[in-house]
Amino acid sequence: MSTSTLGLGGGIYLGVGLRQSTAIADPDITGINTYNGIGVVFYSPSQERIASLTAGLGQGEKLETKMNFSKYGNLKGFQISMLRNNEIPFFNGMKVEFYYKNLPFAYGYVDSFPESDQISSVVKIGGKGYVNKLRDKKISVNYASKTIEYILDDLGSTYFLDLGFNYNSSKIQPPNTTISSVDWSEKDLLKIIQDLISISNTNFDTIEYIYGIDQYGDFYFKGISEDEIEKAYFEGYNYQNPIVENDASNLVNQVQLYRTTDADDKETEYVDTFEDSDSIDMNGLYERKVTFSDFIDNTTAENAANGIIADLKDPKTRLTINDLIIDSILNYGFYALSNKRQDQKTVISDFALLSDWSTFIKNIAGSEVFYAGNEVDLSEWAFISTNNGTVSIGNPGLDGTVGKLDFNIPVGGGGNRAYANSGGKTISYSNYMLSYYIDTDSLTIGVGESFINMYGYYTAAISIKSQIRNNAGQYQILISVLNDAAGWTDGTWTNISAGEHLFQVVYKKASTAIANDGGWHFYIDGALQESVLTVDIFTNWVSTLTLHLGLRDGVDAGTLDSLFIDEVNLIEGDKMLIDATHKTAIAASAAWTNDELIDHYLVIGGISYLITDNDSNQLTLNSSPESGIYDWKINYDLNISIIDENVYTGRLCYKWEIDDNEGDLIEKDVEYFSPTKLKLFVRQDITGEYLSIDIDGSKSESFNINVPFANDWTEIEIDLTEWIKVTSITLTVIDSSDITILLDRLEIYTETYVKRLLSLENVSYNIGSSSIKCEQATFGTEKILLTEDLKKIDEKNKVAVEIFSKQ
Amino acid sequence: MNLRIRTRGDLTYNISDIAGDKVDLKRGETLLDLDIVEKSFRSGAVLIGERRIASKELTVSIELFDDNDTDFRQAFNQFCYYASQIEYLEDVDNDIRTKVEFKGFGDSPYQSLGTINRGGYVDLKLHQLTPYWEDMTEQTDTDTGTDLTFNLNNSGYLDCPATFTLEVAALCTGILIYISDPVRGIEIQDLSFGYDTTLDEYIINNENGTILLGDEQYNRNDRIRGGSGFFDFPVGNFTLNAEFSVSCQMDIAWRRRYFI
User: Fold this and answer.
1) Helix A786-797 and helix A298-312: axis angle, to 10°?
2) Interface residue A327 vs chain B (CB under 8 A)
3) Chain B residues with CB inside 8 Å of A340's CB?
4) ipTM
5) Which of A76, A26, A80, A72 is nearest to A53 (CA)?
6) Contact yes or no for A300/A804 (Cβ under 8 A)
7) What is the mean pLDDT of residues A644-663?
8) In angstroms, what separates the C-alpha of A724 from chain B's closest C-alpha?
9) Chain B within 8 Å of A341 (Cβ-Cβ)?
10) Which helix (H) or strand (E) covers residue A150, if one does?
11) Tens-place pLDDT, residues A375-386
């Protein structure tokens, strides 16, 4: 039909500043020079290229395009302005390809152009995107038990070519949803495809589906993900003064569910009511009645109703920007838009959900992790005594369980000994830990006397030892290590108080033969007493260790009666993290699975835990790269419940009943930039400090929460202006008293950019000879809803959709 | 007054070459625009904290004399030629400049002075796109490491944006640059920075609001972590901290800003 016009094609006359690029027969655009501006290629309906225009440089040239796009990235309409002094023949239905920076980005057709007898020097040509062509074809069709892909393939292969665009099956990637029955009668293709996109756009995950005609003239139907942020823009830099609206007009937070009866599809029966109470509290009641066909079962209907609520319970944010500064064309997708820095308050937790806090942890402490090895089996130990000494099993054990070692010398002096010999244990790591409970209350040591309570033999030579003495009435312990020069490096005498204690010594090999960075850490009850890391201990480092523990040697005349020792563990490992430079070691530990850890000991800050295979006590590992501190955490059921006590009116909050729970804590990983202060509402039945709050991030600090009034809510405020960032918040019980603590509303105040992830809804451009200008862009959170549109389809078209068959 | 035109093509033209010391600059009226509804970037105003300084018109008045008509016209045309391409108006005496757009010139009556001299007064109208003056020479600082502290002094009188140029020799996924007081900063997580030698440079431009990666200058604004973002240097002494996951060379460049 239009071949006659092609006669002009070979001799295109381009006006001043409009450049012809390549011969018309050439099917591609490669000849167009790289300019920043717009390029336009005109085709006849029979695909012959009629003209290629690019915006030139210099004055007096004009090629300018205004265009706008829909939320699916479809070109809706365009207007091309160019100088009249070219001889391009215009006619309706001419195909137009648009190029920007030499890349195609849109595809449309001309539907209006000026008569040739006009005198204006500028010609304005109007057109539409090819999606509009879908409106021109009306069909009646029905499918049963077909996937969306099947339907699209069927429609595409039958109708698309006639409409002027391509059916390319590789670009049709709908969700794997099966429609059990659908009947469209006298519907245009656009309506049918919109129905299909509505079905595809469920809200179960972040994928949304879009359709359209791409820049190559191919029909597409595919998913996009919120994870794929196209660009990020900042107010004050990339745009100014957005118009931000909250639109509650479509809000639904309660669904009254009805269903047509089996007998009569005009009659309905009430099924159930579903609601979101938080949304009702915040926004008031927005109710909707939804009626399903009788063949929809209860579960499906309930899922659909909950889906409607999930999608519509929050007001939608819409953000409109005029004159967005861009460097490339935005079609569709998700964009991160940051409003300018401002003060804002965020509720970190309202303590209404137990799962709101990521971990409930028992007894977390310390900053060093010593990786677990095998427990030493006490049954392998030999008990040795000389003269009057005895070794026996006493009860109860020091660790709270049954059994302890009772080393007894009834009469002091005289070379008496009573000790246990572990036998040789292989040490294959560059650090290991000796840990045991000890009780010296029943042992008498003469004033000024001392004895060896531990020898560690490497083959025949003693390589580690510890001694206990009575220094003017104060019992003390001394740790020593044999260095490479075969001399003893001693620590300092450390006081031992009365009662039972956990002694732990982490021995560490020097990093190289010439380095003086070996030594030990010594803990009593998990508290670090002494760190000596200046020892040249490399060549003499043990590979096989034999331990002697008890009243081992040098027992003087005034030293007698019982020394109790329990729960002796020799733990080895290579994951001790002394400082931040060992960070990479933790990555290696990721190779260890929970199964491998079971029945091993885990040491946290000097306290060892046996890891058991217990579903309720799962093991988690948290790393905090900011500080180089790694903590192992054991999930634990705390005495926390949710009750209906409130700060203001009827709100839920945590009730934390503690009694000898010192060290219990709850923790939450957060990410807040530029915080200014933190607020927490606390209520206790006793005044005083029973909780501490630890703030981690760009710095770490702990604050005790002092509650001045009993049984009244106290607002705790913590100044965070010294932090640039907060990454974790921990509430820890710091007292073993019997007390009930109520927690509500943890809020953080920040002065930051407000970042939103919004999808592009529509956008309009003005692209000129060397510039691109985004005239207006609207972003919104609005989603196309399966549930909503399903209802319409169901009512009007008798479609039944297997809603949840998406895979 | 020694004023100079710098054109978009980076050519310079000393106004005093034709007008000698008969140059006058009217700086216009400076107003703080407290109504942030104004679409300020269109007219050239700049965000300064919560407030903007409205853009304004500058007038450069010169007296031009020459020996005869031809020379006068030539000098005047040459002046207008450069003025029409102006990008910056430079105050050479004070080493400051401001970004302007040529708006036009006023009526330029010229008259005979005696029999041969020709002279005239002309007002060059310029629209000041950035309503402040800034250093012609950039202030710079540089350091290398993973944990850097810069003690800086913005001795201008307005908050000013800086450009940070980062260069690494290994993969650097974490970047945190901040000022503690007043708290402001930017945090970036980019798994591509330092991946290879074509991606080893990062330019954080706080003036344009862009982050460009590597030789191809990919825009990486979407790698900025939530809550953080571009920021200006405050006036006076402050400490800028920078933390990187691997050793990084950081170059800082900024131009101090002045009201006049």
Assistant:
1) 130
2) yes
3) 47
4) 0.80
5) A80
6) yes
7) 76
8) 6
9) yes
10) helix A148-155
11) 334 555 677 887
